[in-house]
Amino acid sequence: MTTTIPFPVVDEIARHCHQQAEPETVHIEVHLPGPVDPPRLRKAFTEALGRHPRILMREAAGPWYRRRYTWELTAEPDVAAVRFSGPDGPALAAARRRSLDETPPLTASPPIRLEAVDRAAEGTALVLTVNHTALDGPACLRILATAAELYGGTDNSPTAPPVRPGQPPQSAPGAPGTWSRPARVAPGTPATSVPGNELILTELPLPHRPKGAPYTVNDQLMVATARTLAHWNRDHGAPPRPLRITMPVDDRPRDLTMPIGNGTRLVEVSFTPDELDGADTSALLHRTATRTRALKAVPRPQLGHGAALLTAPVVPVVWRGGLTRAVRRAAAPWTSTTLLSNIGRIPYPLDFGGAAGRARAVWFSAPARLPRGLTVTTASTAGRLHLALRWSRTLLGPDDGARLLDLFAQHLHTTEATAP
User: Is there a contact between 74 and 45 (Cβ–Cβ < 8 Å)?
Assistant: First the structure.
């Protein structure tokens, strides 16, 4: 008997709002120091999918009047999920382009693809493409960690998360209300009018944080992101408006019991124009820490209570789809300015053993569909910060991305020169 699972709220909303012109893919890129053996990697990744059967799924067919979309679990992949390319120079750039432009279909199990790019003396790049309707980056990384263990026979159990000093959540005065229309990212100089995403990846030192500081690296990244966009908008003549930054929060375990799917909940961190223009970085970091702690402590549905109402199975799902898209268009002016997704320290060694070795860099990038048009995603490996800027190419161009990267590095550095 075939096992089916109704689409959760997040999956249904994403399914309704999918656009082929601007695919909602999650891109993950892992750099290994050495070469991989293709048959061995294909076998390990396929077996890892079987260890996490929630990813071996496809959208089940059904009549137009059905009240839910459902996932249909499969015993085996419907399609080959692993491909190999290289070692020619443009191979990695082409793999990244495919990851941004080509969404694995929901109609074939699994909705994820892995491309191993041979970079000759530079090792191997593993480029994963995830259909964001089906699962998110941390869930995909869990599957890759299982594949690494099966490939190399090396323990890839997650490390324990850092222990934070317990502090009671507090309200954060001075933040703009969620009913204020937030700033948009000011348009730059796009190189094309064709919809889609562009991407820039870089590596930075992890920002220094004074011992005992009440704020986290995530708070430093939040301040750097907010100040970067305020600086960008000011340079482009945009009137000052409050900034709102969406921040995913993931409370799932990282071991083999981790639920596979879209498991993060979204909260929004607000900033007033005055506090971003001020010079008191220490005070801003403290206020940001208070806000993020308070937001994380409040239980709420993943996309809020409104999304739960939109997905209530009281009418055919295609009717709800039309309503959901209409609501999204109407709410566009109140959509947050940008999204900052900080994966944090990669909890798995991602050690493939032997010649392939242990991951030395891991990047994630989240979709940057308008009206936000820009996302910032960070992760840390081996004491380095791996930053991905991803933007809508009808909003910004490559030179704009490079300028935003420079601004981010500049403002992140200013968060270091402060005392607790």
Answer: no
